[in-house]
Amino acid sequence: MTKNWSVARVLRDRDAALYLAASSVSGFGTSALWLTSGVWVKDLTGSNGLAALSVLALWVPTLLGPPLGTLADLLPRKPLLVALNLGPAALLLTVLAVDSAGRLWLLWAVLFLYGAASVVADAAESALVAAAVAPELLGDFNGLRMTTTEGMKLVAPLAGAGVYAAYGGPAVALVDAATFVCAAGLYAGVRVREERPRPAGGHWRAQTAEGARFLWGHPGLRPLVVAGGAALLLSGLGGPLVYAVVDGLGRSPAFTGTLYAAQGAGSIVVGLLSGPALRRLGERRFAAYGIVLTAVAVAAQAVPSEPVALVCGAAIGVGLPCVLIAALTAVQRETPDALLGRVTATAGTLMYAPTAVGLAAGAGLVELVPYRPLLVLLALARLAVLPLLRGAQRPASASHTADRSPSDANPA
To answer: Do 315 and 266 touch, CB atoms closer than 8 A?
Structure first.
């Protein structure tokens, strides 16, 4: 199956195309608000620390992934997705009242609830996609989702900054609310026959732990998720070094944006290639090759050359998402439908939460250790992640998703 044919096959599938469109529209609004909320707070207070709280408010709910993901298993997922887009749209209207530093608590509260809704929505969407998309095309779908997400990250911040500069923070909130309403309409148009949610049994904590036990006890999923968390921990550690790399090139801090753009372009490319690569290599080798590519690119950033820095940025953009796409695809294929929301959210917490720890530690390391030796050490540390993947085993039995044929999931 060629790359172009498999990608086109995903896009020709009505439900998959609707999912991608909804994710792209809401992702545009989220990326725009992510940037402008910090600028808005900075303008109102003059404080960099308070501006950073805006990003923190959006990110913190990721730590609550396991209990939040339980909602996606206990409620009908399609109506839940629609509600989780209309709810934040209504909440965002309340930030129109934020006109002074004294009312910033309202903005942060809305951003926190916004982030929590996003965690549940991601879990519900992952479960619905596993039911609606043919199992052999899940890698293509997840890659395309990565492509659209990274594409929005390249476009939306600039658009959001333009709207903010012209009309202020409330206008950006209105644009974001409109994207949520559009996403809700797209999700409502999806045709998928859901299994009836299993009646809740036992305490909420026990239900949450059920998903974590499945993930940790699965011989194929645990190594991939742990490797993903380790990769993002090291990515966080290296995050602050980009400013030192730019200094070493003799460029102004604004050149950092160019490097991030190159990384985003790389992520767009790997999103298009991930489906065929996963089918050819399997999740474990696909993740391993991505880790190796990232390690080489991180070490090469020590070379004081702008062309090399740009190539390394693009290579990191290609390599870093590989383990994440592999882990998510494996979770969708191997997890029973009744647990998929919880397992997806738990995997997301285990993979993404270490980023914050890495960023905090990296900010200290870059002040204490010369950045070039530190880049080499971080590259070697990435290679040390590879043994974790050796334990990843694909069960001999068919994937759980094989029980949900596309013809059953997509009624005519």
So the answer is: yes
Contacts of 140 (CB under 8 A, 6+ apart): 6, 7, 9, 10, 274, 275, 276
Per-state percent for the chain, helix, strand, coil, to nearest 5: 85, 0, 15
CB 69 within 8 A of CB 341: yes
Summarised one tens digit per residue, pLDDT across range 304-352 is: 999 999 999 999 999 999 999 999 999 988 888 888 888 988 898 899 8
Domains along the sequence of the chain with CATH: 1-192 (1.20.1250.20), 208-412 (1.20.1250.20)
Give whole-number Cα distances, 140 to 6, 19, 111, in Å: 7, 13, 31
Positive/negative CA dihedral, 49, 54, 57, 60: negative
Distance CA 280, CA 261 (A): 29
User: What digits encode the pLDDT tens for the residues 248-293?
Assistant: 888 876 677 778 788 888 988 888 888 888 889 989 999 999 999 9
At 139 the three-state DSSP class reads helix
Q: Phi, psi (5° rounding) for residue 85?
A: -100, -40
List pLDDT tens digits, range 215-229.
888 888 999 999 999
Residue 304 sits at φ, ψ, to 5 deg, of -80, 75
State the Cα–Cα distance between residues 115 and 97, nearest whole angstrom: 20
* H helix runs in 168-305, sequence order: 169-188, 204-217, 221-238, 241-248, 255-300
What is the greatest pairwise CA distance in the chain? 62
Closest residue by Cα to residue 372 from 290, 309, 288, 282: 309
**Residue 58 contacts residue 110 (beta carbons within 8 Å):** no
Rounded to the nearest integer, the mean pLDDT of the chain is 82
CA angle 25, 16, 261 (to 5 degrees): 45
**407 — pLDDT class (breaks 50, 70, 90):** very low
Q: Of 88, 137, 96, which is closest to residue 115 (Cα–Cα)?
A: 88
pLDDT in tens, 33-85: 777 787 788 788 887 667 767 777 877 888 888 888 888 888 888 889 899 99
